[in-house]
Design a protein that fits this description.
mainly alpha, two-stranded antiparallel sheet
Length: 183
């Protein structure tokens, strides 16, 4: 079996709120998820950045889904299973840390590698009257020209870097695509 039936039924990792999410559809979802991860194989060659997803390991997902739900929180303490397993392998300040992990932690390195392409893209975006009207390209260009020296400096400006710069480029590309000028 792909996973233990009770794990799929009792799991808090996959929502059971919808009636159509029966056991088979959840297993099918996992199969599709892992099958669709093949695009990641070429990612390092395209971006120069090697993506890491230790939590995307199918064996780990199947193991976690096979565990009883009660193991994840004991005596009101979240992540108690991980804390118990790692207490003799990690310092107490790490094991007892209550903060949540940071998603997409390598964003600055990826954006830095793509920055020259984004600068050229900004020139193309400025040719579109629609983009100029809807998006503040001057602010986006100011972010691109005032690029942080390292990841620590970038973290102080993460909202500006991710929300304004990365999303601004993305939205602008979409506008150009809609108007048919995305060449």
């Amino acid at each position: 079996a792909l996973v233990e039936p009770v794990a799929v039924t009792d799991s808090v990792l996959i929502s059971t709120d919808r009636a159509d999410y029966d056991r088979r559809s959840r297993i099918a979802y996992l199969d599709r998820y892992f099958a669709n991860c093949q695009w990641l194989a070429g990612h390092p060659y395209v971006t120069g950045c090697d993506p890491r997803d230790p939590l995307g390991d199918r064996r780990l997902v199947e193991f976690c889904l096979a565990l009883p739900v009660t193991i994840w929180q004991t005596n009101g303490k979240p992540r108690s299973f991980a804390r118990e397993v790692l207490k003799d392998r990690l310092p107490p300040r790490v094991v007892d840390n209550q903060k949540r992990g940071y998603q997409n932690g390598d964003w600055f390195h990826r954006l830095t590698q793509l920055r020259p392409a984004f600068m050229a893209e900004l020139d193309r975006l400025e040719a579109s009257a629609s983009v100029r009207r809807m998006v503040n390209l001057q602010r986006i260009r100011a972010v691109a020209e005032n690029w942080p020296a390292d990841a620590d400096a970038a973290m102080a400006r993460d909202a500006e870097m991710l929300d304004l710069f990365a999303r601004g480029i993305h939205y602008s590309r979409f506008i150009r695509w809609v108007e048919g000028s995305n060449a």
